[in-house]
Write a structure and sequence with these properties.
Length: about 325
């Protein structure tokens, strides 16, 4: 196997990153995540010759090491660990480590250096800000307490490096957001390896009655200019007609037909003021097969006929 690797007969999915190894290192990539600023210092593919030694050293930032090919050894805190394809380890600030590439099967390594900078609280919002803050806090806590031991990349963080590199190559719409997302995925997938099941976060569950009521009323709003049956709307929100009728009674304190009529009359009243079309044309467009049916319904809601409503608002 080592000979086959050296001969290049085994496919290497990260070969394209060798074209310009410092491409991502040159980018000033920084972003806010929860209450932390994430600053990417280095993100690249490194290769080491046979038997190459990286002397004992340390960093003030976090360094992620992902072995994508070859073998070697790493010494951390006086303990020696074997490295091979598919493993990764994390060295936090001031962790002394020394790395040696195998003489027969030299290593390729994906490296990510980044800083986690505490920031003040951002502007609170209702679009998942609190969830993001909690997840960022938990992820960085896990990374800070993670043992400096090689582990299997069980959650496939390595392909994220290649995705970031391709985003830089293509420079397509959303390149910054793509890179930010891939960096966060590396952090999250690495943190999961040593996380307990209790560390998993939970997304709040919806109140399904309220949610279905909102979906149904929005559908009526969007399609109120034509006849709507209870069965049609129930099918769109994936409930039975009887269940949808109960939802309208509990959430809207009304019936389905009363709600449809309410929306339809709102649209008709706007149409009466904004267009010069005849009342008969408007009535037909909004599902009243005989325009005479509109008059008593409209008067019951607005206290006057459609013609009087127009005159009241100065529309001839």
């Amino acid at each position: 196997m080592p000979a086959e690797r050296r001969s290049g007969s085994v496919p290497f999915p990260y070969a394209r990153m060798e074209r310009k190894r410092d491409a991502l290192d040159r980018l000033d990539l920084r972003f806010r995540w929860g209450r932390y600023g994430i600053r990417v210092l280095r993100c690249h593919l490194a290769s080491f010759g046979p038997g190459h030694v990286i002397p004992a050293h340390k960093h003030s930032e976090f360094e992620f090491h992902f072995i994508v090919r070859g073998r070697g050894l790493v010494t951390i805190g006086g303990d020696v660990h074997e490295l091979q394809e598919g493993l990764f380890y994390l060295t936090g600030p001031d962790v002394v480590h020394e790395q040696v590439s195998d003489p027969e099967d030299p290593m390729f390594e994906l490296c990510l250096h980044c800083e986690f900078i505490p920031l003040g609280p951002g502007k609170a919002g209702a679009w998942g800000d609190e969830l993001e803050e909690r997840e960022a806090e938990e992820c960085i806590r896990l990374l800070r307490t993670m043992p400096a031991l090689p582990a299997l990349d069980r959650y496939h963080a390595m392909p994220c490096f290649l995705e970031a590199y391709r985003a830089w190559e293509e420079q397509s719409v959303g390149v910054y957001t793509t890179m930010k997302t891939t960096i966060l995925q590396i952090l999250l997938r690495a943190s999961r390896v040593h996380a307990s099941p209790e560390a998993a976060g939970n997304i709040p569950e919806r109140d399904m009655k309220d949610h279905r009521f909102r979906l149904a009323t929005q559908y009526i709003e969007d399609n109120g200019a034509r006849p709507l049956a209870l069965e049609e709307v129930a099918e769109r929100v994936h409930v039975s007609p009887r269940q949808l009728q109960r939802i309208f009674r509990s959430e809207g304190r009304t019936t389905f037909s009363e709600w449809v009529e309410h929306i339809r009359l709102q649209k008709i009243s706007s149409e009466l003021l904004e267009s010069e079309r005849s009342i008969e044309e408007i009535a037909l467009d909004y599902g009243y097969a005989n325009p005479n049916y509109l008059y008593p319904v409209f008067k019951n809601k607005y206290g006057m006929t459609p013609s009087a409503y127009r005159r009241l608002h100065g529309v001839r």
